[in-house]
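Appendix C: a fully annotated inverse folding record. The material below is reproduced so that readers can follow the format used throughout the book. The structure is listed first as tokens, followed by the designed sequence.
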């Protein structure tokens, strides 16, 4: 966490001896990080869904591609 704070140049967590709380900047960062993760998961689901559709199409064409008996 300290490395991230150094990279950002801002404190995200207020540390105490036995606890910690998010700073205002930390709360903002967390909100944006959660939104980014949600969008990334949605993008991944779109790609997986399209792949599943292609797979189902290919499976439905397989019987047509197989030679019949005799």
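Designed amino acids, in order:
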């Amino acid at each position: 966490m300290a490395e991230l704070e150094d990279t950002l140049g801002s404190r995200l967590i207020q540390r105490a001896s036995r606890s910690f709380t998010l700073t205002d900047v930390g709360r903002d960062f967390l909100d944006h990080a959660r939104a980014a993760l949600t969008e990334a998961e949605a993008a991944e689901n779109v790609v997986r869904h399209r792949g599943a559709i292609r797979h189902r199409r290919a499976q439905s064409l397989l019987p047509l591609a197989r030679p019949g008996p005799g």
